[in-house]
Task: inverse folding
């Protein structure tokens, strides 16, 4: 029977609290590892000792090593490693120099050799290489998609209420979450602008959120816009300003961003490409209200009425003020690259209209679900040229998120998320935008951009299987280095199991689970699962490790989410992250991916 857990969990190596307590814990852990066992105390007087099992290469790894080395040899040469990478791992572009560099890094790490003295790998070195996610990760880390298509052909990493530090009703507004989002690769930042006398503030209107100044947000965006990606940043503004403050906002934007700011000379009939907009910043919002044009018309009508001298003088001053205001608002309107706004007619009509110029339409998650049921093809067609932004419903007060796949299935480029709202939905968002080197732009699959007669129908259910993904999970390691030995269980080593999910179109969604490995910090599962996929282009592989507890809720052991189209085949080291999406220092799984 499983032993009960401690109610207070230990801290991980990712925690900010790094005091003397952690140093002492490391010393204890080191001495425990050297002794080859972990000691657990029960009821303060029983001492339970558990042997630390050495991490050994799985049989498949040993077979691969033997297959690509000479018979009877105990070492793998650079050329043999190059062949292994090319044939087994399907990395056909691997050069001999690349293999030599891998060997040098592995030998230096394992044997602490500062000068490169050995030019081969033994089987333990080979295993170490396979478990190194920086050398043998599950997806490519470079930008490799075509970046020359129009913006409407990409999924774009998009934030919602990017300035909020917590919930939607009473949390602080700050530039800090904006900075964090940009550092994590988010490319669309949303700011809500509200007037405060002569100042412009950013806050969630009609709530108790404390404001942050607009200029502070702009300055932070300028400083951090391109620290993680060179591709364009789009600022979506929810504008509640007076015409006077719109003119002031335009001055702030132009003076802050200067040449970084992109805006076209005329309305766009097609969006430019991410490649052409490298290191540029764009504004997207509703154009200023047209009442200025009505005011201008009223003024011209007043000219026909007789006026005395005092009236004429006052009228001249009003005209001057109005012309100045009109120029300021016109300047604000000129800065808007991506025009947004509600359709003049019904949503259903707007989706069917062929608009020129192109524009952005915003729908709540609820509106999208409702429209998708009857007008799915129209939404896909609309997003081929225009941009669709989907945002969380207003009742998500805790900054939770919705399932993003319905937006992506319909071609929505901007699936806006609360980046501070941790949870499984946000893990999916992280997974999607690990694609294409994490640059924040992921090109849509052809099924969402091809001609109308071949258009993808998100409601289709009887689709043929395009390919099957085979996932083999061998083992896991690293928890003993990143966690206290009593973190999962006060009285014994953890009992880990892994859950594997496919998330995508409804026909492809699936869930598998490994057996539970009891009392082992380095669990070996050695299990394989198959996932038939009808739309692999939109599939995500979500992996979650749990620690079994018979008396309480199972403990969380780490998670990750990976875009299926980006998976590299062969043996791969898959690093795990905490609940907030922060990568653990040492925790990873050894897995194998294969498409058949």
Result:
């Amino acid at each position: 029977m499983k032993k009960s857990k401690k109610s207070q969990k230990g801290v991980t190596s990712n925690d900010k609290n790094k005091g003397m307590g952690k140093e002492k814990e490391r010393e204890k852990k080191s001495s425990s590892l050297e002794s080859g066992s972990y000691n657990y105390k029960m009821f303060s007087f029983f001492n339970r000792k558990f042997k630390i099992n050495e991490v050994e290469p799985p049989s498949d790894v040993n077979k691969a090593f033997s297959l690509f080395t000479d018979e009877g040899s105990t070492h793998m040469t650079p050329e043999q490693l190059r062949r292994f990478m090319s044939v087994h791992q399907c990395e056909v572009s691997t050069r001999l120099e690349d293999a030599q560099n891998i060997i040098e890094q592995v030998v230096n790490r394992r044997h602490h050799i500062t000068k490169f003295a050995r030019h081969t790998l033994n089987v333990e070195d080979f295993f170490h290489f396979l478990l190194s996610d920086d050398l043998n990760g599950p997806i490519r880390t470079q930008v490799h998609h075509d970046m020359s298509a129009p913006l409407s052909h990409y999924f774009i990493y998009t934030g919602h209420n990017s300035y909020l530090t917590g919930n939607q009703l009473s949390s602080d507004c700050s530039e800090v979450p904006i900075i964090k989002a940009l550092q994590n690769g988010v490319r669309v930042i949303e700011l809500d602008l509200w007037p405060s006398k002569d100042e412009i503030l950013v806050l969630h209107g009609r709530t108790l959120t404390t404001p942050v100044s607009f200029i502070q947000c702009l300055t932070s965006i300028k400083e951090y816009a391109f620290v993680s990606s060179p591709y364009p940043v789009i600022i979506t503004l929810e504008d509640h300003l007076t015409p006077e403050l719109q003119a002031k906002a335009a001055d702030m934007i132009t003076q802050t961003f200067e040449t970084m700011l992109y805006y076209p000379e005329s309305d766009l009939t097609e969006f430019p490409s991410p490649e052409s907009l490298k290191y540029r910043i764009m504004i997207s919002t509703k154009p200023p209200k047209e009442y200025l044009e009505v005011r201008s018309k009223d003024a011209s009508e007043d000219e026909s009425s007789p006026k005395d001298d005092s009236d004429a003088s006052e009228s001249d001053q009003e005209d001057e003020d109005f012309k100045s205001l009109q120029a300021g608002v016109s300047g604000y309107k000129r800065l808007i690259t991506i025009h947004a706004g509600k359709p003049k007619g019904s949503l259903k009509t707007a989706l069917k209209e062929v608009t020129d110029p192109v524009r952005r339409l915003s729908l709540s998650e609820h509106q999208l679900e409702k429209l998708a049921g009857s007008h799915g093809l129209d939404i896909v067609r609309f997003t081929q040229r225009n941009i669709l932004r989907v945002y969380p419903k207003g009742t998500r007060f805790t900054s939770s998120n919705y399932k993003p796949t319905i937006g992506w299935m319909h071609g929505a480029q901007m699936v806006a998320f609360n980046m501070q709202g941790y949870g499984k939905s946000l893990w999916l968002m992280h997974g999607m935008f690990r694609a294409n080197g994490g640059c924040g732009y992921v090109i849509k699959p052809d099924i969402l951009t091809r001609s109308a007669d071949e258009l993808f129908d998100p409601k289709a259910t009887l689709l043929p299987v395009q390919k099957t993904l085979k996932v083999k999970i061998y083992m896991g390691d690293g928890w003993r280095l990143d966690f206290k030995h009593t973190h999962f269980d006060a009285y014994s080593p953890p009992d880990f199991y892994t859950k594997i999910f496919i998330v995508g179109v409804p026909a492809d969604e699936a869930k598998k689970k490994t057996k539970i490995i009891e009392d082992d910090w380095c669990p070996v599962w050695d299990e394989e699962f198959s996932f038939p996929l009808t739309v692999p282009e939109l599939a995500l592989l979500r992996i979650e490790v749990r620690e079994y507890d018979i008396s309480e809720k199972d403990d969380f052991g780490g998670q990750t989410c990976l875009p299926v189209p980006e998976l590299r085949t062969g043996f791969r080291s898959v690093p795990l992250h905490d609940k907030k999406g922060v990568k653990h220092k040492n925790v990873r799984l050894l897995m194998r991916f294969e498409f058949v």
The longest strand covers residues 583-595. The chain has three domains: 59-131, 151-287+327-448, 467-595. The chain has 16 helices and 21 strands. The domain at 59-131 is CATH 1.10.238.10 (Recoverin; domain 1).
